[in-house]
Structures are given as structure tokens and as C-alpha cells.
């Protein structure tokens, strides 16, 4: 069983940043309003995610580490209406099979918290422990028992940068949640959690830059796009600060990305890419989130329509006229 989890882990968790993503998604699914991410040695030493969400009852805390023991899909038709972020019940089992995990959790109303330790897939019996409401998940020594995989990790600096990018994306995806991102040395950023994406941008990239952003908005029957885009002068030398979200999920979609760049056209210098945070809302049946094991690439069933809408929203924002 541990073996199967380790194989699954190859798809779900490739590096500290993938742990960060899975743990944040679990906190969001548990309706956290505050999520703190702490990285030690770029996450190679440990990744800790602390939330103030619903917490788990003792039995569920142990079950959480069993494969396909998700509390979120009960029958096949549930898959068609996934609203939560996690749904395969694989992440924690996979992570715990290749790391040392400490879970501290206290459900709302529970008299005390409990601690569950899992090392290389071996689950220890829960122990009572003092704790605030919510959940703390600490993942230490990732790949300690799979040296072949450990070898593929890059420097602490590189791994940290990847994890921080994940927290930045999730912060922008969920402006209503207050995120704290820190290392063993310092707080890297902190978002206010007031529901305003521009405030999140300010927390990540500075107030001055956030103020210059242009609003973009358009809708067309089945789709709505809203958010903001940078002025051509704010463009960067990489695509890293172009953020796209579909139904609250950070995604990558090359066609939409190209549509956005097309809208900028001649306004961009060669080798420069626009900054933006665009939020697409559409009927979930038009989105297939299950293309990629890490749920990052999405397939849109009416991609061309979506691209046209996004392109016109960006063009209108650049032209200073709202649609
Ligand atoms: P999935 O998210 O696909 O259901 P996971 O392996 O990520 O699977 O998590 C397993 C289960 O553990 C979740 O379904 C949830 O019930 C519970 N869980 C995990 N993290 C948290 C958390 N931060 N707060 C509350 N419950 C959690
Ligand atoms: Mg999950």
C-alpha cells in the first residue's frame, strides 16, 4: 500500500511547491479565512500550513492519510459537480508516504486538539494535544525515503521561489482569505483578506504598481471575465505575472494567454509580457479540471468563445473604454 502511495506521489507531489499547493487547497476546502505558509530551507526542510478552518474529528484525521479516503466524492455524479478543490483523496496519502508529517487539528466545538504523526506512510495513533481551532499540517524531510526523487530537487532558493509563486497565485485566487507567507527568516508577504484582489496585488508587488492597473470586464451569456491588467509600461520580461483563474482556480491555458497578448498587440515591446489577474467565471460543466495530475492545465470546451471575450475585454481596458 505504501508502495502504491509512493507511485501516486510521483504524480501528485514532485517538489515542496506541490505540497504547498495541495495543503492550501485543503485549507480552502475547509473554509479557512486565514492561511499561513511557512517554509524552512525553501520547503525542503519543511513546509507548514496553518489554517483556521473546520478542522477534523480524530477518526477523520487518521482517515485523511488513507488513499481515496476523500470526504468529498461519495458517488460518481459528485465528480460532475466538483466545487471543492480537492476531490481525489490522494494528496495526503501521497505526501505522507514520502515525508514525515505532523497533523494537529481541532474541529469547531471539540474540547481539545489531536496530533497525528505519519512517517513514510506509517500512521501513528492520534494523541491529544492543545491546539487552536483549525488545522496545522507540517511536512518535513520530503523524499527522505526516496533518494532517487530527492535528487531531482533544486537548490533551496529555487524550490522556495516555486513555493512562493504558488502562494502568490492562491492569494490572488482568494482575495477573501488572509494569507501569510514566510520563511524561517522573514515574512515575505501578507494579504489583508478583505476580498479586494487589487489589495492582494499591492501586497505582492507594491502599492504603486497596483494603483496603475486597469480594470477589465466583459460578459457574454455563459461567461464573465473580470479583473485587471497592467499598462504596457508595466510589462515584464517573463510571463510569470500573468494570472488566470477559472471559477476561482489558478489555471494555465495557452490559448487564453495568447488572446491576452494579442490584445496588447503593438503596444508591447518585443520580449515583454503583460501582467494581469483575470478571473473567468463559467458553468463548471464547460471546464475539465482533470487533465493534469496537478490540476493546473485546464481544458475549456468552448475555448474560442472564451478567447474572443477575453481579448475584447483586454482591448477595451487598454482603449480606456469598458464594454
Ligand atoms: P482531497 O482533498 O482530494 O479530499 P486529501 O488527501 O488532500 O484529499 O485530503 C484528505 C481529506 O483530509 C480531505 O477530504 C479532508 O476531509 C481532510 N483534510 C485535509 N486537510 C484538511 C484541512 N486543512 N482541514 C480540514 N480537513 C482537511
Ligand atoms: Mg486535497
TrEMBL record:
Domain of life: Bacteria
Gene Ontology molecular-function annotations: ATP binding; ATP hydrolysis activity; ATP-dependent DNA damage sensor activity; mismatched DNA binding
Keyword DNA repair: yes
Gene Ontology BP annotations: mismatch repair
GO cellular component: mismatch repair complex
Keywords noted in UniProt: DNA damage, DNA repair
Residue intervals of the DNA mismatch repair protein S5 domain: 201-319
UniProt key word Repeat: no
Family to which the UniProt record says this protein belongs: Belongs to the DNA mismatch repair MutL/HexB family.
Its biological purpose: This protein is involved in the repair of mismatches in DNA. It is required for dam-dependent methyl-directed DNA mismatch repair. May act as a 'molecular matchmaker', a protein that promotes the formation of a stable complex between two or more DNA-binding proteins in an ATP-dependent manner without itself being part of a final effector complex.
Annotated protein name in UniProt: DNA mismatch repair protein MutL
Biological source species: Alicyclobacillus vulcanalis
Lineage, uppermost ranks: Bacteria, Bacillati, Bacillota, Bacilli, Bacillales
Gene name of this polypeptide: mutL
Amino acid at each position: 500500500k505504501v508502495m502504491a502511495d509512493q507511485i501516486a506521489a510521483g504524480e501528485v507531489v514532485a517538489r515542496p511547491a506541490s505540497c504547498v499547493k495541495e495543503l492550501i487547497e485543503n485549507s480552502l476546502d475547509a473554509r479557512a479565512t486565514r492561511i499561513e505558509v511557512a517554509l524552512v530551507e525553501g520547503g525542503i526542510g519543511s513546509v507548514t500550513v496553518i489554517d483556521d478552518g473546520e478542522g477534523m474529528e480524530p477518526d477523520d484525521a487518521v482517515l485523511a492519510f488513507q488513499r481515496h479516503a476523500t470526504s468529498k466524492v461519495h458517488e460518481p455524479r459528485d465528480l460532475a459537480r466538483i466545487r471543492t478543490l480537492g476531490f481525489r483523496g490522494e494528496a495526503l496519502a501521497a505526501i505522507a508516504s514520502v515525508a514525515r508529517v505532523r497533523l494537529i487539528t481541532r474541529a469547531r466545538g471539540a474540547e481539545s486538539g489531536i496530533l497525528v504523526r505519519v512517517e513514510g506512510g506509517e500512521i501513528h495513533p492520534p494523541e491529544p494535544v492543545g491546539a487552536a481551532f483549525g488545522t496545522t499540517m507540517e511536512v518535513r524531510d520530503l523524499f527522505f525515503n526516496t533518494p532517487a526523487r530527492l535528487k531531482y530537487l533544486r537548490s533551496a532558493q529555487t524550490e522556495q521561489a516555486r513555493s512562493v509563486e504558488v502562494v502568490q497565485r492562491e492569494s490572488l485566487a482568494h482575495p477573501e482569505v488572509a494569507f501569510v507567507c514566510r520563511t524561517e527568516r522573514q515574512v515575505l508577504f501578507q494579504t489583508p483578506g478583505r476580498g479586494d484582489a487589487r489589495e492582494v496585488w499591492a501586497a505582492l508587488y507594491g502599492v504603486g504598481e497596483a494603483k496603475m492597473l486597469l480594470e477589465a470586464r466583459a460578459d457574454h451569456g455563459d461567461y464573465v471575465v473580470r479583473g485587471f491588467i497592467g499598462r504596457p509600461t508595466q510589462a515584464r520580461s517573463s510571463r510569470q505575472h500573468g494570472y488566470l483563474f477559472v471559477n476561482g482556480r489558478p489555471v494555465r491555458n495557452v490559448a487564453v494567454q495568447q488572446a491576452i497578448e494579442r490584445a496588447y498587440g503593438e503596444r508591447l515591446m518585443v520580449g515583454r509580457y503583460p501582467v494581469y489577474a483575470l478571473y473567468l467565471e463559467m458553468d463548471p460543466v464547460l471546464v475539465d479540471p482533470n487533465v493534469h495530475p496537478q490540476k493546473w492545465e485546464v481544458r475549456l470546451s468552448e475555448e474560442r468563445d472564451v478567447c474572443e471575450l477575453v481579448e475584447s475585454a483586454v482591448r477595451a481596458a487598454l482603449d480606456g473604454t469598458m464594454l
